[in-house]
């Protein structure tokens, strides 16, 4: 039975609506029915960490698939994207839980300072993960270093945007002071 291959651009067109729906679904609960912003509800840190990991990996996976699927190297055809997604979610989730347990208390530092500290520690851990994963698939340390270095630029931007989005729209850990209300234009 012949198999049909899906091109990279067709796959991106299929995944884009799913990605947009996921982002909108995460942001929708933060708005009240009448359009007034309501404070985000609180949630256990493990629940928030799980959904933050999924949203981060959905965005970075989409970017990786788009940038590498046009002419994928031979080693990417052997399950690399699946292994990257699984280890990426696990790394993000573990980092979030450890940060919740050992990081600064909610509200004790500015959002920018906490975001920068989280971004630096996560990038260090995730860069090591990307290097190890690529090295396992290729056996070439130069390719692994290149992929890990490229992930620093792209994935750090996505990480900071993901954190910012979850700070504004997501449920907050217990004990976090409510953010100030957003200005709303009234008619």
Structure explained in plain terms:
The chain has five helices and no strands. It has helices spanning 8-27, 45-68, 80-102, 111-138, 141-169. Helix 1 packs antiparallel against helix 2. The longest helix is centred in the last third of the chain and has 29 residues, at 141-169. Mean pLDDT is 74; it is low at 1-6 and 29-34.
For the biggest sheet, the summary is: none
Number of strands: 0
**Domains (count):** 1
Distance between the termini: 62 Å
Structure annotation, total helices = 5
How helical, in percent, are the residues?
Answer: 55-70%
Q: What is Rg?
A: 19 Å
Structural class, judged by helices and strands?
Answer: mainly alpha
Mass-distribution shape: elongated
What is the averaged pLDDT score? 74
Task: Please trace the helix and strand order, writing H or E for each element.
Answer: HHHHH
Proportion of beta-strand residues: under 5%
